[in-house]
Amino acid sequence: MKRFHQYTAVLVALALAAAGCAETYVEEYVPEAPVIESFAPSEVLSGEDTPVVVTGRHLHTVTTATIGGREVSILERVSNTQLILAATRDARSGAIELTNAVGKAQSEALMTVNYPVPVIRAEELPAQVDMFGELTLRGHYLAVVRKVIVTPDGADKGREAEILSQDGAELVVRVPYVETSDARITLRYDEGDEEVETPLGQAPKIGVVRLTPVLDALSFGRLIVGRITTLTGSNLDQITAVKVAGESANIVSQSASVLRFMVPLVEGFAEGEGNTASLAIYYFDDFESYDVRETIPVTVLPFHIWEGITTYGQRGAVAQSFFSPETGKVYDNSAWRTEVDPHALETNQNKDYYKTHPVILQTSQVAADKYLATPPYFFFSGANAGTLAINSPANSYSQLRNFFVSTVFSGAANRVPGGEFDCIGTPVLRFRYLDPQNPTEAAMADKVRNMTLTRIDEEEFPVDMTAGTVGGVLLGSDAMGGLSTDKWAPAYAKGTDAEGFPADAVLLVLYYNENGSPKDANPVENIKRIGFVHITSVDFKVVVSGSNNPPSASAVHFNAYWQKSDYDYSKL
């Protein structure tokens, strides 16, 4: 920080006049440019941050210092006549130059910077180190090192290791990818303005443990798009990608012995069982790969499957709160205004809109063409009395403003709608918890849990307009635009943290057309598509908020199953 001190001499003269008048005046002196008279020591070793004491005048106001034309740190402004610099490893042989607001000063004498050769004590190296693991190097003059290069045995070119910490006696790095089980370690450092490297032939050798993934025999004979598929074996935590026909799959969970991934929908796949694809794993930061199967059968079911999905509440560790069962995407909160629901703001940007217009929740607030262009989506948010709710956008009169585009939970412009005002999202959805104590509802839920669904359409789940049912399940007032844990996780202790809470709740999801589903309307009218959400578990995390304490920082884990085509009422 620049610090300026102005020295002011105040001279007061009292002149006794015949009339008895007094006169006072002030004279100000402007600081002068610094002056260097001497410095010590005159020689330093690069990399040791040697303190250099500069003696002179007007040094208290110095703002920057260089040695040999390279900026160095000012350790202490001792007084107006003494300054202490640090001859950092950026320093070069040459004059010392000091600058303040008035001018510059350059020393007549020159500083000499000597460049020591860093040395690794080979006898203190471990016999082996894990690839991508940490390696500690001990030795002399290690602070001068700019890069650590790990070169495979037999090769003449290596890769740079990430330096994690460093001082003169110890240097800690993360081992990069190495093609062989042995490697040599060389150091790059400055010698004047040139970067030099210790000779490869003199470099110490170290063993590298390459934890190559090994797969057990596959437990499946085909892949199903959207379904979670499991690989078992050893060292599977080294896998960085699973690819189906060259398309990266979403890795749902991963450990050394088990990896679960969701089979992606690849361009060119047709509905049915007539598809084939390659299955490959990539590991060691994608430097290496293994073809698990050159061809494996792939089935595309007549409905969307999205398994292993995670979204977060409005105070979650990750700002990814919006999920569309139509696209299968979890959207970053920053995409809400542009990609998820851009038309909602056309109405809601007028903050006074709701003062002059009646609002009917679960009814579209935008024109029909814009409604149909918006993918259906939902989100979870902390609700009153310490609960968590799944929400329809069109039921979210005061919810969307509580979400932020990043995990910096402050600032009106950082809120999802772009301001702290009421905002209703576009798609209209209702949620119906399938009660395991009701035989009809339990049977429907079991089809979802066990994935014995063969299709999701009006034939499998017919609407009865008179009875108000879908697939025999009565909707009534239980089909709601916002459904809280009181319904789908009644065993959850409100307002408490509960990681890995086993919700195992199946919800019937109803998506309505542009006419919506007003509160007093028959809830089976205007249904456009249906689907299911199986909430498998929740990492409940409370945000303390007065007496409410909602679990707004929770992560919700679920599977979704969704109708591909619009409901055809003519088939009923």
Tag the structure with descriptive keywords.
572 residues; Immunoglobulin-like; mainly beta; disordered N terminus; 6 helices; 9-stranded mixed β-sheet; single chain; 7-stranded antiparallel β-sheet; 4 domains
Task: Explain what you see.
With 572 residues, the protein is mainly beta. It has 4 domains: 8-114, Immunoglobulin-like (Sandwich), CATH 2.60.40.10; 119-209, Immunoglobulin-like; 214-300, Sandwich (Immunoglobulin-like); 307-571, no CATH class. It has 6 helices and 43 strands. Strands 12, 13, 14, 15, 16, 17, 18, 19 and 20 form a 9-stranded mixed beta sheet that branches. The chain has a 7-stranded antiparallel beta sheet with strand order 3-5-8-7-6-9-10, with no helix packed on it. Strands 30, 35, 40, 41, 42 and 43 form a 6-stranded antiparallel beta sheet that branches. The N and C termini lie far apart (76 Å). Residues 1-27 have low confidence and may be disordered.
List the helices and strands and how they pair.
Blueprint (H helix, E strand, L loop, with lengths): L7 E2 L17 E2 L6 E6 L2 E3 L4 E8 L6 E4 L2 E10 L2 E6 L8 E4 L4 E3 L5 E3 L4 E2 L7 E3 L3 E7 L4 E8 L6 E8 L3 E5 L7 E10 L2 E4 L7 E5 L4 E2 L7 E2 L3 E7 L4 E6 L2 E2 L1 E5 L3 E5 L9 E12 L4 E13 L2 E10 L7 E4 L6 E3 L3 H5 L3 H5 L4 H4 L11 H5 L6 E5 L3 E5 L37 E5 L5 H11 L13 E2 L4 E2 L2 E2 L7 E3 H4 L9 E4 L3 E8 L14 E14 L14 E9 L9
Parallel strand pairs: 4-11, 13-20, 22-29
Antiparallel strand pairs: 1-2, 3-5, 5-8, 6-7, 6-9, 7-8, 9-10, 12-14, 14-17, 15-16, 15-18, 16-17, 18-19, 18-20, 21-23, 23-27, 24-25, 24-28, 26-27, 28-29, 30-43, 31-32, 33-34, 34-39, 35-41, 36-37, 37-38, 40-42, 41-42, 42-43
